[in-house]
Write the structure tokens for this entry.
Amino acid sequence: MSLRRQAARGTLVNTAFLVGVNLLGLVRGFVLARFLTRTDYGLFGIVVISLGTLMWLRQSGVGDKYVQQREADQELAFQRAFTLEALSMALFMVIFAAAVPLVALAYGRHELLGIGYVCVLMLPALALQAPLWIHYRRMDFARQRTLQAVDPIVSFAVAVGLAAAGAGYWAPIVGVTAGAWAAAIVAVWSSPYRPAFRYDRGTLRSYLTFSWPLALAGLGGIVVAQGTVIAVSAHLGVAATGVVVLAATVVQFADRLDQVVSGTLYPAVCAVADRTELLLESFVKTNRLALMWALPFGAGLALFAGPLVHHLLGDRWAPGIPLLRLLGLSAAVGQLAFNWDSYLRARGTTRPIGVAAVASAVLFCAVTLPLLVLDGLTGVGIGMLVQSVAMVLLRLHYLRALFGGFAPLRHVAGAVAPVLPAVGAVLLARAGGWGAVAQVVLFALVTVAATWALERELLREATGYLRGATA
């Protein structure tokens, strides 16, 4: 099978698994919002975001570097990478355990102590999931995604069951921990190579050179995500933090197809990293394919945030409507050139990734925080939109340096064109007094029609790879 066809079929496999799994996560977010109070949801969000942002700091890039390497003895290469991952996780566990009391003190909530230390128990499970890298590097996506699906399925079942039983904020925390350990057990059990500790100083140097900009990117992510939660909690209260967490849960669904495409292509991109013309072709085409989903989702969220909240979540979440609209626009903009970092990592040029993260953190401090003080949750949404626009411009700058023939304006215009007729049609229908359901149907139909009219050749090429009709 050619690399193109293998990547195309991998995209189909990843889409089938990840869309289903992440739809499950979206449903879980809505179900928990029904069972939990906004304060409980906010407490859960504080711990998850605190853990997640510290995980960004821990972004060692060990898995990415393992996929990129071309050692003769692949079992030894895996064991050396696994050793570095385990050491990194052990250090991170100490840091996180020490940070738990500080987080509880910062928010003035003693409940965060118990929640945080339960999350510490989850961390070894994340290191034990390292054997999934092996399937990923081999582009054995069906095996990899089947094993990965264990985590969200177990997490969903445990969290929803406990929430229905009245466990409050413990429901999602215990669910996340149970899912992580279930995935770790099946990953180790099915590993093609035996996990073992093999330390090598030369391997450590190689991985550090690759990884330090990714760690810097993690630090920038901490500033933005954790800064948002702390600032919103301090200025507007924990209930407002729950609104931010719920809005982020909904908006993240726009990223899922991007993650499918990026995750599928990275091993293939590593295999042809020295062929710039092929990298450019794959970058442009995969961006256009992913944006067929991401841009309509973001635009649709901006258009229909009000009915979504009133009819599905309940009026107590109404303060989040302006934030949802702005984050929908931010998500749509942020998908442009979304997988730029995959190409830089495949080439071993990770420094721009760190630079972009630092720039995002600076914009957050200079723009988003002042807007939060001036205009509350709406100010947060405006600030995030400004950050998204700035990050896209920075990505396009680096991509022009990587791909000499890349035309950023043409790329942006081509990506946005299919969704504009749908937005215009909905605004006209709304002015004419159409109901919300009719507007959603109209939006979907016009989007599909415009996408087919403008992108039919690319869609035919992609389906040709899946059918095996294209080499």
